[in-house]
Every structure is written in C-alpha cells, then in structure tokens.
Sequence to fold (89 residues):
Amino acid sequence: VWRYAEDSARFLFGEQTGDPLADEILALLKKAGAEGLTRTELSNLFGRNKTAARLNAAITTLEEYGKVRRVQEATGGRSVERIVLTNTN
Fold:
C-alpha cells in the first residue's frame, strides 16, 4: 500500500519534495553532474543568503527521499562535505 501511495505521489508531483529549497538544490545538483557540489558551493550559489541550518534541512529532506548522499572528502586540513546525486535519480 505504501509503495502504491509513493508511486502515485511521484507520478503526480514528479521530483518535487514539497520543500522549495530542496527542489532548487536538486536542480542545481543535476546541472553540476556526477561531481556534485560542496556545501560552500551551494551556499555561494544562493548568494550566501541561506543559513547553514536551512541548507542542512533541505539536504536532509533530499536524503530522506533518496535523492542525494553526503560524502566527506579529506583535504590537507578541514574535511569537505560534498553533496552528490544518488544513482536512483
């Protein structure tokens, strides 16, 4: 029953999550390609006008929908969090 409901919602609403920021992030990630975007790049694309908490909430929504995953990348110093599309998109 749940799968039918989810499939029906997906058919009706497509890729939309109900969170406008999450939907916008998803569109940006699709444009970015397989490499995805770092949190800093995402913040910069929004003119640094979204709080870290708001970006985090939108990314979490996309994770819950199975659209993205977070990847920690080691650097010479502080690690970088990269947001990439999952293979199910």
In short: The two ends are 23 Å apart (CA to CA).
